[in-house]
Please model this.
Amino acid sequence: MFGKIVNFEAKQQDVEIVFENGRGTISIISDLIIHVFSKFEDNGKSKAIEEPVIWDTGFSAAMAGDCLVISTAKVTIKVYEDFMVDFYKADGSILCRDYRGERKLRLVLSEELIELMAKEGHQLKNEVNNHKLQVMKELEGDEYFYGLGDKTGFLNKRGYDYEMWNTDDPTPQVDSYKTLYKTIPFLITVKANSVYGIFFDNTNRSYWDMGKESSEYFYFAADRGNLDYYFFTGEEMKDILKGYTALTGRVNRPQLWSLGYHQSRWGYETESDVRKLAKDLRANHIPCDTIHLDIDYMEKYKVFTWNKTSYDAPKKMLQDLGKDGFKIVTIIDPGVKAEEGYKVYDEGVEKDYFVKTPEGEIYVNQVWPGDSVYPDFGNEKVREWWADNQKFLLDYGVRGVWNDMNEPASFQGEIPEDIVFSDEKRKATHGEMHNVYGHLMSRATYEGLKKYDKRRPFVITRACYSGSQKYTTAWTGDNHSIWAHLQMAVPQLCNLGLSGMSFVGTDVGGFGSDTTAELLTRWVQVGCFSPLFRNHSNKGSFYQEPWQFGKKTMDIYRRYVELRYKLLPYFYDLFVAGEQSGLPVLRPLVLHYETDLRVRECNDQFLVGESLLVAPVVMQGALNRMVYLPEGNWIDYWTGNVVEGAGYLIADAPLEVCPLYVKEGSIIPNYPPQEYVGEKEITALILDIYCGDGVYTHYQDDGESFDYIEGVYNQYEFSITKEGIFTAELSYRGYEKLYSSFILKVNGIEREIPFEGRKVEIKLSNNTEV
Ligand code: MIG
Model:
């Protein structure tokens, strides 16, 4: 449809191309990042990329026959008629080419069959559903696709199709589901000799077919918005993620307590329920930092109210719990009860802050409070107002806010696409703003917490868009207490991490349906390694706090929560390092062992950082499992046995064991046992050392303020060699508290060495004794 290239002009970082029937732009964001754009509509600014990023990169652009050739030091882009764009490496090898053919059905059905099957409700179709905007790319045959946010199914998305349309569907989601709660239109493609990424920055409903329809092409498509995508390449997957997060933002280090254990349930209704829960957690010595209050704490589900019938004195309760180390996170839904006399509603009506019908009436649908209206988060004024409303919660002592139902959910049918939403000053539609609604709500919440609480905001959301990682953590919504969902948790968290969302978790134990002792046990063994570690369940399902299934289950559960508390400084360091690298905390094996074909589709093992390999049991009844260890030597965390990698083994996994391996040469910081973060002042850092050659960087700061931005933190470098030489050094000092010693732990033997800020070097004799 664009026709032939007529002309082009290079202006700074942009190459503007005039076609017979349209215009397109190729922008050189960096050597490795290329933006492909053509305007179809007057859309607003990107929601994901708030600050345009352009590195001043040299490039050349010239016609070669019919083709426009643009080259950076690392990529050559060839643009042909009809705005076909092919990407090559500098050495001329193919990265990714547009597909020139038409879409074809894989299966052609007879009309009779379609008619017959329709009688039972099957909806079969014989036509290709072409979209107005449709970018088809060649499949060379060896692609593995990762990312795409929280989609169901497995790690590799090859052979599946999805839609991006944030959806609240509490039925048990399985691998054939097209949509879930989040829209992250970003993927990483790994091929035999190359890797690339694509980010389709279009907020409308979009369609992704990763080679399901055809083995010749994959595509992404939408019926509205612009042709607007970024192409990333580099040496390895890590470069793609670094590029994507450089544009859309990275997760900032959280408050340390939020890395602890969270207990939640939709069903703690009263003050005494919550106090009892806190008491039980401490009495049973289950370490815990956070209790979540679901919609029952509100008065008639009205946001920014507190139910004074079921809570005598919430402020006092939060103070008392605070003394015992508990932080309270409260839920806030976007739906505002349509009730005159209710402050939030009245104010929103007066200021014109709710979305409207095309006729100009405030649009009403239903959620928990009954008739409800929807704040228009695309308007900056509305976000500021919502941010100010967080003060209501903070005044009670609330420490974090949980944003639910922000797809947005609606009980009386989906909000029509033409309902009028704002995109800042521009009038937009629900269709355009739907997928960014949760993103903008979390952003408003973040900004409110930042403004009034001043500490690093803790926000947790269900719906989001690319870039939400700057503002919020996320959980995967309403999973079920079924084994299939424990199995899905691993690839789902891995792909969220590969999509820039690294602070994520699933409801441990499962939300809907009833959990069992065994499922809960196996789930906590995954949950304790998830960046966000929260047990949560549905009203009407079995209670699933750690003690609900007897002592044996609780003892195992406690063991894994304790392990998490031990590993807190390791998790924290991973978050801090991620601020620079964009790498997630929980990682699929392929991220570090990209050329090893045996890990490209590993769905039941994952890494935490580079050092820990977790091989959880996700199969009912299994008491052992096959484990694949990539190249190198690995140490069994529980037995200390050294295992050579690049091979499979059968690991024993009785209920109390989650197979766990540490890479040789690792240094893993540990905290002593605590029931909550800050219970003890940590002056001696434990270093769990696995001899071999390795280095490790550790960060120390106050764990809650933004002072680190001004340089108020300490940075330590540790190293270990095969010969057992250990060194510790302070590489940056900006925070007054300094460890006074390190406790070196090698093969279970501990030795404390004093530290006064000067470099320490010692020989750990024999690798076994210290
Ligand atoms: O669909 O607030 O996903 O975590 O407990 C019910 C009640 C609405 C859905 C959330 C879930 C939460 C529940 N909410």
Q: What stands out?
A: The mean pLDDT is 97.
